[in-house]
Design goal:
Residues 502-521 have a biased composition (Basic and acidic residues). Residues 183-306 form the Aminotransferase class V domain. By secondary structure, the chain is α/β, with parallel strands linked by helices. The protein has helices at residues 41-44, 80-92, 114-120, 138-155, 167-184, 201-208, 226-232, 255-264, 297-300, 363-399, 430-439, 467-485, 490-493, 506-511, 525-529; strands spanning 159-161, 191-195, 212-216, 237-243, 268-272, 292-294, 315-317, 329-333, 336-340, 416-418, 446-447, 457-459. The strands form 3 sheets. A 7-stranded mixed sheet has the order 1-7-6-5-4-2-3, sandwiched between helices. It has a 3-stranded antiparallel sheet with strand order 10-12-11, covered by helices on one side. α3 (114-120) runs antiparallel to α10 (363-399), α4 (138-155) packs parallel to α10 (363-399) and α5 packs across α6. It is globular and about 75 Å long. The termini are close together.
């Protein structure tokens, strides 16, 4: 039986199948050996106690006025061992790249080398503060300048804005530069072309800055037709936002022709750099006609990923957009980096569209990314891309006879896309299949995206995985597929059975989140009897 928080309250009947949680021995604590049943921190802490006692400062004169707190904060007081145990136990219930293969497509969940972490913790990087005098941080400026130089060299672009904090923030930066360039020409173009298979942030970013979004239909093979783009181009079109390789895991074969048509119409080419990991060292987007592209350092260059930050999404710009790069940025003067923080420090012809953030960026992410680049070198970065593509096609080859490929005529790039055709008439959905993967110890792949494919399952193993790791992953998915075809429906519809929590109502949780813990009311005798 589960309570309203999804926790087991007592063992279920012995009629359950052998090997399921319901049939395993009951324990007094609710723990199962190393799988500890951990309550919320508010349930184990005591608001009336604290780990540190500080005397009230003499002569304190609060300046908060009516905003001053009327009562003590209701924070849980824990001893240091209790606090450590709580968060360690929670971490063991979470999936991470350090615990297993993370096959999320379009996310590039690669291993974060520990060398990068060591470099980011060096004095002068770990403790640098954005309000320090610039004269005290020459090494930090060198790192930012070197990283920016590498990003320009790898992409074939002329300038880079380092301040954006994430991919979507970088998209905003690139599109604002495009809007500023159009205004500088005295034009009012406000239409952005976005392929149907684009990341959802693309149309959202365009709409955010007041642009009108116009869809570009995908061909039956998942790619964008240059003739379809030409048919939509006109004097009102400001830009196209195209991902390459696209979100179906396919390299756009007509990307150069699309760029040529867009430029001929007076518009700009924005490339979503989410999938840059597939082509680093192989293709320079600038050579394809790209004018702006954000780069997810956490995806392509292995800085930590997830949890809402910290992030970094630098934007590389062509010569057509370089004059509009936002403040702050770095100039090289006599070979030394100089931080330009105001318009007064800009060179003739530079007209920054403004400032996106208070400071220059996220130093820890910059240090990690540069450490990754320098430890790999140009040949190593190229090999990482080749290995990522090889891994995706290895998974594809191992599953193509059992799982259905919506675009079988195109080789995969760094990710392989399947649809739910192989589940037809089994009574099992894409969601069911993904939940069953949790029982097998894997985080599910990206589901239901891209939207142009029904029941999409997008797998990106990255270059981090060994052949043995990929073989076990493929064998596991093959076993699940065969189980589904044999009609073993409960293995899927009841999954996950072995996770700390069973299947939750994720839609309801997203629409009606409980953001504040409330002390539960005492149970009545009738409720306790249940």
């Amino acid at each position: 039986m589960l309570n309203d928080q999804g926790r087991p309250t007592r063992p279920e009947g012995a009629a359950a199948a052998e090997g399921t949680p319901a049939a395993t021995p009951w324990t007094f604590t609710g723990n199962r050996a190393l799988r500890v049943e951990e309550p919320l921190i508010f349930e184990i802490g005591r608001a009336e106690t604290t780990g540190v006692d500080l005397p009230a400062p003499d002569g304190l004169a609060p300046r908060l006025g009516r905003l001053a707190r009327k009562a003590a904060p209701d924070l849980p007081g824990l001893t240091e061992p209790e606090a450590m145990r709580h968060y360690v136990r929670l971490s063991r219930s979470n999936y991470s790249i350090d615990t297993g293969l993370y096959p999320l497509g379009s996310c590039t969940m690669k291993h974060n080398p520990r060398l990068n972490e060591k470099m980011a913790r060096l004095p002068g990087f770990a403790d640098v503060h954005p309000l320090q005098p610039v004269s005290t941080v020459p090494g930090a400026l060198d790192v930012i300048a070197d990283l920016g130089g590498w990003l320009c060299r790898l992409t074939g672009m002329d300038a880079v804005a380092m301040s954006p904090k994430a991919g979507a923030h970088g998209e905003l930066c690139g599109m604002m530069a495009i809007k500023a360039a159009i205004r500088a020409r005295g034009e009012t173009r406000n239409v952005v072309l976005v392929p149907e298979s684009a990341h959802g942030t693309n149309p959202a970013t365009a709409a955010l800055i007041g642009m009108t979004v116009r869809d570009v239909p995908a061909r039956a093979d998942g790619t964008v037709d240059v003739e379809a783009v030409k048919a939509l181009l006109g004097p009102d079109v400001a830009a196209i936002m195209l991902t390459n390789p696209n979100t179906c895991g396919i390299f756009e074969p007509e990307v150069a022709a699309i760029a040529e048509a867009v430029h001929a119409a007076g518009a700009y080419f924005y490339a979503d750099g989410a999938n840059f990991n597939a082509i680093v060292g192989k293709v320079r987007p600038g050579d394809l006609g790209v004018d702006a592209m954000h780069i997810n350092l956490h995806k392509t260059f292995s800085t930590p990923h997830g949890g809402g930050g910290p992030g970094a999404g630098p934007v590389v710009l062509s010569s057509r957009l370089a004059p509009f790069a936002p403040l702050p940025f770095i100039h090289l003067e006599e070979g030394r980096p100089v931080l330009v923080e105001t318009e007064a420090g800009t060179a003739p012809g530079e007209t920054p569209f403004g400032r996106m953030t208070a400071f220059h960026g996220q130093m820890g992410m910059f240090t990690r990314a540069l450490a990754y680049m320098l430890s790999h070198g140009t040949d190593g970065l190229r090999q990482a891309s080749e290995d990522a593509v090889l891994a995706a096609n290895y998974v594809r080859a191992g599953l193509a006879d059992l799982m259905t490929l919506p675009f079988p005529d195109h080789p995969s790039m760094h990710e392989v896309l399947f649809d739910d055709g192989f589940l037809k008439e089994t009574g099992i959905t894409t969601l069911d299949f993904a939940k069953a993967m949790i029982d097998e110890g894997y985080h599910p792949m990206t589901m239901y995206f891209p939207l142009v494919v029904h029941g999409a399952m997008l797998i990106e193993p990255t270059e981090s995985e060994s052949k043995a790791s990929l073989d076990l992953f493929v064998a596991t998915l093959r076993d699940l597929v065969l189980s589904a075809k044999r009609g073993e429906t409960e293995r899927f519809t009841q999954a996950p059975r072995f996770a700390p929590r069973r299947r939750l109502d994720e839609t309801r949780a997203a629409r009606s989140p409980k953001l504040r813990w409330e002390k539960p009311k005492p149970w009545t005798a009738a409720e306790a009897a249940e």
